[in-house]
Amino acid sequence: MIVWANLGASFGRSCFTTDFLGRGCEVGDDVLSAIDDNRRNVVATFWEHQDQARKLTRRLVFLTWLSAVFICGGVSLIVFSLVGDVFMSLVAGAAIGAVILVRGAYVRLSLRGGGVYVAEALGGEAVCRQSATGQERM
Q: What span, in angstroms and rounded, lies between the C-alpha atoms of 18 and 3?
């Protein structure tokens, strides 16, 4: 493991660093270029993962809406088969759709609190960094 620091342009592409034993050594262009390449790959990989996450989120939102439509349609068909009235089946489907919309709006508004709200909703507790014990940090 190499811990490295760029000491500025006055030293060119080589810089002084320490290895995992703390011994000083000078790092040349080949190591620095490998580190630069690795950084570029990490950054590129990060943005690729971001793009993939956006695509998957869009797909998930679409499938959620599609499932809500199928649920409303299924309820309408069941009510129509039981009652035989088209108006009642449409009212039942619309009522289920309204419940789904209201619940979705409630969840969306409640998640606006951010990560703190989500953590507390899942049973998490706030821990002060200065007074945190080893058990609290885990």
A: 6
> Does pTM surpass 0.90?
no
Written as six digits, the tokens of 120 are 């507390």
Per-residue tokens: 15? 């810089």
Q: How far apart are CA 111 and CA 6, in angstroms?
A: 42
8 Å CB contact between 90 and 97: no
Tokens of 61: 């939102």
Percentages helix, strand, coil for the chain (3-state, rounded to 5) are: 70, 10, 20
Q: Residue 112's pLDDT is what? A: 83
pLDDT tens digits along 86-133: 999 999 999 999 999 999 999 888 888 777 877 888 888 777 767 656
